[in-house]
Amino acid sequence: MGSVQATIDWRTATPEELDGHRCIITTVDGTIIDGYLKAIPPFTPEYQLTRFVLHDRDLCLGQLRILSLNPKHGTAILQPHIRSLTVTRQTKQPTNERNPQ
Questions:
Q1: What whole-number distance in Å separates Cα of residue 5 and Cα of residue 23?
Q2: Could you give the CA distance from residue 77 to residue 62 in angstroms, rounded to a whole number?
Q3: In this structure, are strands 7-8 and 82-91 parallel, antiparallel, or unpaired?
Q4: Average of pLDDT values for 20-48?
Q5: Which of 18, 42, 82, 84 is geometrically suited to a Cys-Cys bond with 47, CB 3.0 to 4.6 A?
Q6: In 3-state terms, what secondary structure has residue 81?
Q7: How high is the pLDDT of residue 92?
Q8: DSSP class of 18
Q9: How many independent structural domains does the chain possess?
Q10: Is residue 13 a part of any domain in this protein?
């Protein structure tokens, strides 16, 4: 039997509320991807958009763009290849990854 997890409304959440949380994605072709969101902050202070990609390197999808948020304008936009997105309150457990030097 599966467990029920509380979800976060990605349409109204801030980037800080979504970063590192588990997501279940359905692509337009029906593929289901279970991973964690990773925020890519704005490039400059004038550029308000925060983009989200998959955090999981194990899936070889680490740069798959999922979502763009602009808190200043109150917009949250899924990328065109994403049909649906569910974000849970579960966060990624820290790993002992080495920092490349």
A1: 11
A2: 19
A3: antiparallel
A4: 87
A5: 42
A6: coil
A7: 76
A8: H
A9: 1
A10: yes
> Phi-psi region for residue 45, left (φ > 0), alpha (ψ -120 to 50) or beta?
alpha
- The model's pTM: 0.78
- 18, 69 in Cβ contact below 8 A? yes
10 versus 43: which is more confidently predicted?
Answer: 10
| Dist. CA 85–CA 57, nearest whole Å | 19
| Structural domain contains residue 101 | no
Instruction: Look up residue 82 and give its two tokens.
Output: 């994403």
pLDDT at 59 over 90: no
Does residue 25 lie within any of the structural domains?
A: yes
Query: Residue 63 falls within a domain, yes or no?
Result: yes
User: Containing domain of residue 32, as a range?
Assistant: 7-91
The residue with tokens 């994605």 is 25
CA distance 26 to 11: 16
The pLDDT of residue 100 is 46
Best CA proximity match to 10, nearest among 2, 21, 18: 18
